[in-house]
Specification:
- The structure holds two protein chains of two kinds.
- Chain A is an alpha+beta fold.
- In chain A, a hairpin with a 6-residue loop joins strand 8 and strand 9.
- In chain A, helix 19 crosses helix 20 and helix 20 packs across helix 22.
- Chain A starts with a strand and ends with a helix.
- By secondary structure, chain B is an alpha/beta fold.
- Among the domains of chain B are: 75 residues, ADC-like domains (N-terminal domain of TfIIb); 144 residues, no CATH class; 84 residues, no CATH class; 138 residues, AF1104-like, CATH 1.20.1700; 165 residues, Beta Barrel (Barwin-like endoglucanases).
- Chain B is 29% helix and 16% strand.
- Classes of the chains: A alpha+beta, B alpha/beta.
- Chains A and B meet through helix 1, strand 5, helix 5, helix 6 and strand 8 of A and helix 1, helix 2, strand 3, helix 3 and helix 12 of B.
- Chain B: Belongs to the prokaryotic molybdopterin-containing oxidoreductase family.
- Chain B: Keywords: 4Fe-4S, Cell membrane, Electron transport, Iron, Iron-sulfur, Membrane, Metal-binding, Molybdenum, Nitrate assimilation, Oxidoreductase, Transport.
- Chain B: GO terms for molecular function: 4 iron, 4 sulfur cluster binding; metal ion binding; molybdopterin cofactor binding; nitrate reductase (quinone) activity.
- Chain B: This is nitrate reductase (quinone).
- Chain B: It catalyses: nitrate + a quinol = a quinone + nitrite + H2O.
Chain lengths: 459, 1227
């Protein structure tokens, strides 16, 4: 057993309001420089939708992440180092600027400087930040399909829906949506690191943050294509790759990442996980993609286990980190309550940003009928009749395992039901907790972590 | 806690190799780039003075003297162990603010339009005196036209501060001299978002005698139902109290988008089992969080709420007789009060409240009998329950004004008395198809339903409750009339099936949600809440929609309970330190009263929209009301309300107020007597009757902290044409001779370019700066000291100067100080000491409420002109124009001398003023040394020292005052806070929790979440209404005439049948035979902007679509051959908009959304239709006046600034929309 520490994040999608504050605070702090205009280390996507860069989840096209060979070995989907070197000057799997978007600005200075006797009100026309040319009709952006905008054009291109064979209806009655904030996943088994021909990418020993060494990067961009989440970017001004740093300059002084602290939905949790580094490869190579979730949980170590604590010390993990792992809200959400799931586990990178899936309103037919839902307990457990199809969530968070997503959502519903009884000074029915494999006191603790969620409990 | 514990313990050891493909080389040196990037020199607390209720405290990072970015503060005082905290507060818009600091849209220097500057410099050569120079320009029609016609057409050039402000000051002095001070107007909005900045400009304007324009009513954010029902402008729970609710309906309020920093309380409350219902015609952002989505057709929400009321009354009031509800109704609402039934043409109709004056023997010889409504007990005895308006004023009422019902046990229904009989009353309805109605009123009809009645003297009476049950169609045995058979009976208004026909909401869903709302309230002790927003409040008939919602909250005993009641969130910002701020902002420490105007009326006249308004009030009145038999123009109502002193009216007369006051004086008369005589003789007219007369133009308009033309100007194109005098896209025809309003002077030419000077201060370029004659560079929110508060949270916090204003920017405080100095200098020569007469409307929370018994409006021919009774009060004020600056920088003697009055409670800040003199120092004035207010921080400290919410001594003093009136214990609300003082320095350290004060109706005592009216409910303090209770029934003549005595469903205005506009859904062919479709045109708030602020911010434009867009349904897009991102044009009589389409299935067919305030100077092309710059969202809207919003002179129908007034509603508009055929062109 080789114990290592990883700073991981959980985002509770059930609380995400899609406001993009995280994106903006991140951008203002990190990527408002020349060469980074189009980069959003943190972005938020409306789902269903095509994301940023568009259709990034279509690995048939982009060839990101790992595949498992017949012999049970892992290799980057885009090919191993040899193939990488062979294609180093023409990387066919790179998203182009049109897949991100052409960053633009406006001729703001022409408003006050317009000479006298204009025929009409002066205007600030849009122009490209890359070419300086006018862009009279802006036709794509980093968040183009926000709130289902342009759905008639984009929904048919949603890779998740395509993967799970879901035809999303574009009628108002069947509307559904939720938001997916994304940063670098700081994976345990990062393809970007494995893809780098220069050895510029690395995972920090002490906290698992994946970084690009700005001095060593030679701009080959294999990391960009290797990352299945498309969270490594190429700075065209410096010729180097850049990516989310998990705000290590903040973490190092005990502050949460910018995106976490500024999240007004209060849905982000940061914490330490201990894991067995010796078993990372084995876990990532688990045969059935639907077993990857358990395999990942399995290599995470119980920070209260005396053996783990001992091994951590032996591996050089400071005691303070073990204590942090014991208080880790991330560990609690992933392990104790089992409500957080990894994003696209089938990419086999073992991502370290996990998500609590969202609840959503019931479908139109159920509410129109009127009879259902009068009893809140029925309503809360009507997960299978939610607007967001379980298969879509499963395509995103459990390699298609709907039962797993349903179990998580039922736990959230059970918590609501249990807590309502307490609020109304009625005795909670113990069967509610039992039905989702939990105890009442666990539901109450989970409630405090998810709902009360004080600052010190989130980070 | 985890992170903090390991932060310091990070290992500095070099990395080791791990098992497989993980490269673990530690790279501290390599990591230096980002560590340097994150470095900064200091962090300064500030906030955003934007028209938003967020009031979020931010950390502003400064590196090398440059502002680099911002993140939210997380240090709000705790909400306690069992509630989520307020941290972090903020949104993507606020997070993008620092972009403005050094952006190319920043206004760095003063600018003047070339033509004006040239004219000025020429004039100055001839007239060295600046006032004479200004007069010379104005006297020369060509010179004036040269710059007026150039507005909005480029040519802004730099000028020095000295030159630019000299022009502004000269224009003011010349205007006062020629026309009087009420021809100067200031437009600045929502003071809570930066109290000193608002106050600085307002103080300057009020010291001159100028007019401050309202905003809350103008924005249509004012819920007129609130003054009607509660006698309060608006008071709502803080966001944290949402968490206390166990049943939450979000009704037309897209909480994640418009209340971004507060939305988490809703998402989190679901986890304790709160059921959440979202009501929205589209799949709005908040719908995602609901358990259920209720999807009414736009504007039909009132039908759904009305039917829910029907269900609740049927099942819980009449069926189960739930005592929890009935006791509440009896004590806190007007339900038990008696109403006289009157004989009308159709039969009996509900009339007026029965008062002690009607039954003198029952109540004895009490004062104010006509304002003392009465109730009945089970034995048939008519009694005075106490706590009514009659007890609120005068010696005799002292100690009696309360809701204790001491010794009185009223019945709710006369069926609870021994002897009653049934009779039929006629009630109005407005839900019929046009053409099937009764009389001239579109869609109106009559329903006949029975009520139990008794005789009291010669009067046939029933109770409000009995009328409400009849109104809601709730059948009780033994009553005559037409009643629905069941919930499934769609033939009668009130049932869920009826609501389904109008709204499309399934009847079963309506019934169930109504039932659940009530059931949950019973189970939780009243913790059922409705969050309501602009999605319902911006309709013409929003007051009726809201009254159907408010009825749900009171039927179910939720109002005034933590976790319950109404939660109106539309522009409602709560300026917590209200009392001290009002002293400062309106210069009440020096002069009283202030001139405060209803903006909607002001703009309606100034922009001549009345000349195009074809609405006939007869088309919307009650079918039971007397028809006047002629076209009634909305402006007739405005004029009448102005002349009766119900609404303010500035400019007031067609003569200068200075001349009027001084002429009166010269004749040895009071101004009041003189003016009344002149009106009687017909020698003097109200300016509002002749707005195209140059004598009556507002002449100078100040804009600061606002963007009138890019954001709030309903009927923007009319503003351009008439206010500014430039080209516009109005295609509406002016009224034909037979349509012209009776009360108005019609001049053949509607005046164009009425303003002599449009001046604006801002830090960024907007439609308003680009149309202004002079633009002054303002400091940003990170460059000044100020205060912020909101009703969303209970804290006061500060703006601070992270960097000094760069370039030539100045803070608002300094800017107006400079102007005050210049005006004083010029005023000394040109004006000196003048006598002014201010026309003041009959005021709310004053004895003026006792003016017009029963809301019976006497004919002018009978009542004559009696100031303060049948016309405005006329108050004389002496103004020394050489001392404006001196007064601007000192606290005047009236605050402590005459006291400070807020909502009828007088505060005496003697100790505070003395302390301010010591803390701030003093400055000399004509009345001796006065406390100095010569910096923004000193002004902020004065505001805090003089308010109960920030000064516990005053809060306690105020409650002690209230106790004298109520006779019930009140002072305990502030007992623990007597020694608490909040100073500006405190707010720099941390946001400060406010003190419970009678300035507001809820309590923060003991860390409790604020819930509106908790003090009324818990300590039996009457509401500020006629009965002292929450009203279902309104008996003002004008409300009765509208058919709105009770909550009722009124559909969106049928503009097709009323004025012949296209009907929604109508297809057509446009100019080049393109397909067109008529759609409902809604303008909800934008996700990427707060009004127009941030819309031009590059980050927000990047996250949105980079320019003007209109959201439309896939179905409507197909009808006109439009695909996503295609350029379209939308047009109607008011103007034209060029935009791109966002086509989405989350939008309902038949309706488009153009998000509010997408300012047209950003990437907007010329229109195909007119070749001018494509409009803004308000190019398709116009002002529509609802007469009942202007009802006044009686009870809660009395005036206060931003408390009541006609709203600038804009949700009833229809537009044609079509695909653009030509390439876009920008120049």
């Amino acid at each position: 057993m080789k114990v290592m520490a990883q700073i991981a994040m959980v985002m509770n999608l059930d609380k995400c309001i899609g406001c993009h504050t995280c994106s903006v605070t991140c951008k203002q702090a990190w990527t408002n420089r020349e060469g980074t205009e189009y980069m959003w280390f943190n972005n938020v996507e409306t789902r269903p939708g095509v994301g940023y860069p568009r259709t990034w989840e279509d690995q048939e096209k982009w060839q990101g992440g790992w595949t498992r060979t017949a012999s049970g070995k892992l290799k980057p989907r885009a090919g191993g180092k040899l193939k990488k070197l062979a294609t180093i000057f023409s990387n066919p799997n790179m998203p182009g600027v049109e897949d991100y978007y052409e960053p633009w600005t406006y001729e703001y200075d022409k408003l006050l400087s317009a000479p006298r006797d204009q025929r009409v009100l002066p205007v600030a026309r849009a122009k490209s930040q890359l070419t300086g040319k006018h862009m009279d009709t802006i036709s794509w952006g980093p968040n183009w399909d926000d709130d289902l905008g342009g759905s008639a054009e984009t929904l048919s291109q949603d890779p998740v829906a395509a993967q799970v064979g879901l035809k999303i209806k574009t009628s108002i009655e069947s509307s559904f949506m939720f938001y997916l904030p994304r940063i670098c996943n700081h994976c345990l088994n990062p393809t970007c690191v494995a893809s780098c021909p220069s050895g510029a990418m690395y995972k920090r020993t002490e906290d698992g943050i994946v970084l690009v060494d700005q001095d060593k990067c030679r701009g080959w961009r294999m990391c960009v294509s290797g990352c299945p989440y498309k969270k490594v970017y190429f700075n065209h001004a410096t010729g180097k790759a850049e990516k989310c740093t998990l705000c290590y300059p903040r973490l190092e002084v005990g502050q949460p990442t910018v995106c976490s602290e500024t999240c007004v939905g209060r849905l982000r949790y940061l914490g330490v996980l201990l894991y067995d580094a010796d078993r990372v490869g084995e876990a990532a190579a688990t045969e059935n993609p639907q077993d990857l979730y358990e395999a990942q949980r399995d290599i995470m170590l119980d920070p209260f286990d005396p053996e783990v604590m001992e091994a951590a010390r032996a591996s050089g993990v400071p005691d303070a980190w073990v204590r942090a792992a014991q208080q880790s809200p991330v560990y609690a959400l992933i392990h104790t309550y089992g409500v957080a799931l990894p994003l696209h586990p089938e990419y086999r990178t073992l991502p370290m940003v996990w998500y609590v899936p969202p609840l959503s309103p019931l479908v139109e037919e159920i509410t129109a009928a009127g009879g259902d839902g009068e009893d809140h307990r029925i309503l809360f457990t009507a997960v299978s009749q939610m607007r967001i199809p379980l298969e879509y969530l499963a395509g995103l968070l459990s390699a298609g395992d709907e039962a797993l997503v349903e179990r998580v959502l039922r736990r959230l519903c059970a918590m609501r039901s249990h807590m309502r009884a307490i609020r109304l000074e009625q005795a909670p029915d113990p069967e509610i907790a039992r039905a989702v494999g939990m105890r009442g006191d666990q539901l109450e603790e989970m409630y405090r972590l998810l709902a009360i969620a004080k600052y010190d409990d989130r980070y | 806690m985890g992170l903090y514990s390991f932060g310091a313990a990070l290992r500095r050891a070099s990395a080791s190799e791990d098992a497989r493909a993980m490269f673990a080389t530690g790279g501290r040196d390599a990591d230096a780039f980002y560590r340097q990037r994150w470095s900064f020199d200091k962090v300064v607390r500030s906030t955003h003075g934007v028209n938003c209720t967020g009031s979020c405290s931010w950390k502003v990072y400064v590196k090398d003297g440059i502002i680099v970015w911002e993140t939210q503060e997380t240090d709000y005082p705790t909400t306690g162990p069992d509630l989520p905290e307020y941290e972090p507060r903020g949104c993507p818009r606020g997070a993008a603010f620092s972009w403005y600091e050094y952006s190319p849209t920043r206004v760095r220097y003063p600018y003047v339009r070339t033509q004006l500057l040239e004219a000025w410099r020429e004039a100055k050569k001839i007239h060295p005196d600046p006032v004479e120079a200004w007069q010379a320009i104005q006297a020369d029609p060509q010179k004036r036209a040269s710059y007026v016609s150039a507005r909005g057409r480029g040519g802004m050039v730099r000028a020095s501060w000295e030159e630019a402000t000299e022009i502004v000051a000269a224009a003011n002095v010349a205007t006062i001299k020629e026309y009087g001070p009420d021809r100067i107007a200031g437009f600045s909005v929502i003071p809570a978002m930066s109290m000193v900045s608002y106050g600085a400009g307002a103080r300057f304007i009020e010291l001159m005698g100028g007019v401050m324009l309202s905003f809350y009513d103008w924005y249509a954010d004012l819920p007129v139902a609130s003054p009607q029902v509660f006698g309060d402008q608006t008071d709502v729970p803080e966001a944290g109290d949402w968490y206390n609710a166990d049943y939450l309906i979000m009704w037309g309020s897209n909480v994640p988008l418009t209340r971004t920093p507060d939305a988490h309380f809703m998402t989190e409350a679901r986890y304790h089992g709160q059921k959440v219902v979202a009501v929205s015609p589209d799949f709005a952002d908040n719908t995602k969080f609901a358990d259920e989505w209720v999807r009414p057709h736009p504007g039909t929400d009132g039908a759904v709420a009305f039917a829910m009321g029907h269900v609740i009354l049927s099942e819980f009031h009449v069926g189960k007789r739930e005592e929890f509800f009935l006791d509440y109704m009896r004590r806190y609402t007007d339900s038990p009060f008696l109403i006289e039934l009157e004989r009308g043409d159709e039969g009996l109709v509900p009339g007026k409240f029965v008062t002690a004056a009607d039954v003198p023997t029952a109540t004895g010889d009490q004062p104010n009998p006509s304002f003392r409504p009465v109730v009945m007990e089970a034995n048939g005895r008519v009694v005075d329950p106490g706590g009514t308006l009659a007890d609120r004023y005068g010696e005799a009422g002292a100690g009696k004004w309360n809701l204790t019902l001491d010794g009185v046990d009223p019945v709710l229904s006369l069926m609870d008395t021994a002897e009653w009989s049934s009779t039929e009353v006629c009630l109005p309805r407005f839900d019929l198809p046009a053409g099937e109605g009764t009389g001239a009123s579109v869609g109106a009809g009559i329903i006949r339903r029975g009520v139990p009645v008794r005789r009291v003297g010669d009067k046939l009476v029933t109770t409000v409750y009995d009328l409400v049950l009849a109104n809601y169609g709730v059948k009780r045995d033994g009553l005559a009339g037409e009643w629905p058979e069941s919930y499934e009976d769609a033939s009668q208004p009130g049932t869920p099936a009826w609501a389904e026909e109008h709204s499309g909401v399934p009847a079963a869903q309506t019934a169930r949600i109504g039932r659940e709302f009530a059931r949950s309230s019973i189970d939780s002790g009243g913790r059922s809440m409705i969050i309501m927003g602009a999605g319902v409040n911006h309709y013409f008939h929003a007051d009726t929609i809201y009254r159907t919602f408010l009825a749900l909250t009171t039927f179910c005993a939720t109002q005034g309970k933590n976790g319950g009641g109404w939660a109106h969130y539309v522009g409602q910002e709560k300026l917590r330190p209200q009392t001290g701020w009002a002293q400062y902002a309106f210069a009440l420490d020096w002069h009283r009263p202030a001139r405060q105007m209803i903006s909607t009326g002001f703009w309606y006249l100034l922009t001549d929209q009345w000349r195009y308004d074809r609405v006939n009030v007869e088309h919307m009145i009650s079918p039971l009301a007397q028809s006047s038999g002629r076209r009634e123009a909305p402006v007739d109502s405005l004029v009448e309300a102005s002349q009766r002193g119900w609404m303010p009216s500035y400019p007031t007369f067609d003569r200068s107020n200075l001349d009027l006051a001084e002429t009166a004086h010269a004749q040895g008369k009071s101004a009041a007597d003189y003016i009344a005589g002149e009106l009687e003789a017909g020698r003097l007219a109200f300016a509002c009757t002749d707005p195209d007369n140059p004598r009556n133009f507002p002449r100078v308009l100040f804009n600061w902290r606002t963007n009138l033309l890019g954001s709030s100007a309903k009927g923007t194109e009319f503003f351009l044409r008439h206010m500014l005098g430039v080209d516009s896209d109005v295609s509406a025809e002016e009224l034909a001779p037979e349509e012209r309003p009776a009360s108005m002077t019609w001049r053949e030419e509607g005046a164009r370019g009425k303003l002599d000077l449009m001046v604006c201060a801002d830090f960024r370029n907007t439609s308003t700066t680009l149309h202004s004659d002079i633009v002054l560079p303002a400091a940003t929110w990170y460059e000044k000291h100020d205060l912020s508060s909101t009703d969303m949270h209970p804290y006061i916090h500060s703006f601070n100067e992270a960097v000094a204003p760069p370039w030539e920017a100045r803070t608002d405080f300094d800017l107006f100080k400079d102007l005050a100095i210049l005006v004083s200098r010029m005023g000394k020569k040109h004006l000196g000491v003048r006598r002014d007469v201010v026309a003041v409307p009959l005021g709310h929370d004053t004895p003026d409420e006792l003016t017009m018994a029963h809301g019976r409006v006497p004919a002018r021919s009978e009542c004559g002109w009696v100031p303060g009774v049948t016309m405005p009060k006329l108050v004389e004020v002496e103004r020394d124009y050489s001392r404006i600056a001196e007064k601007y920088v000192t606290l005047g003697p009236l605050s402590a001398g005459a006291g400070m009055v807020t909502k009828g409670v007088t505060y005496t800040p003697d100790e505070e003023v003395a302390a301010l003199a010591r803390a701030n120092g003093t400055l000399p004035t004509a009345t001796g040394q006065r406390p100095a207010l010569d910096t923004a921080i000193k002004a902020a400290d004065a505001i805090l020292a003089l308010s109960g919410t920030s000064n516990g001594r005053l809060a306690h003093q105020g409650f002690t005052e209230v106790e004298k009136r109520t006779g019930t214990a009140m002072a305990h609300h502030a007992a623990g806070s007597v020694d608490k003082r909040i100073t500006f320095a405190d707010t720099v350290v941390q946001p400060q929790g406010v003190i419970t004060s009678p300035e507001w109706s809820g309590s923060e005592h003991g860390g409790r979440r604020y819930s509106a009216f908790a003090i009324n409910i818990e300590t039996m303090k009457p509401f500020h209404t006629l009965t002292g209770r929450m009203h279902y029934y309104l008996d003002h003549d004008w409300l009765q005439r509208m058919g709105e005595s009770m909550p009722i469903y009124r559909p969106p205005l049928d503009m097709h049948h009323m004025v012949g506009e296209p009907a929604p859904g109508q297809l057509g062919r446009g100019g080049e035979a393109q397909a067109e479709v008529a759609v409902r045109y809604l303008t909800p708030h934008n996700k990427w902007a707060i009004h127009s602020q941030y819309y031009d911010n590059l980050h927000m434009l990047t996250l949105g679509r980079g320019g003007q867009t209109v959201w439309m349904s896939i179905e409507d897009a197909e009808k006109i051959g439009v695909r996503d991102n295609d350029w379209i044009e939308a047009y109607n009589r008011n103007g034209v908009v060029a935009a791109r389409a966002i086509v989405s299935h989350r939008i309902p067919e038949g309706t488009v959304f153009m998000h509010h305030a997408q300012d047209r100077q950003i990437a907007t092309p010329l229109t195909e239709t007119t070749g001018r710059r494509g409009g803004t969202h308000n190019s398709l809207t116009r002002i529509l006046l609802k007469p009942s919003h202007m009802a006044g002179g009686y009870g809660q129908f009395t005036y206060a600034f931003n408390y009541v007034g006609p709203t600038g509603c804009q949700r009833d508009e229809v537009t044609m929309i079509r695909r653009r055929t030509k390439e876009v062109d920008f120049s």
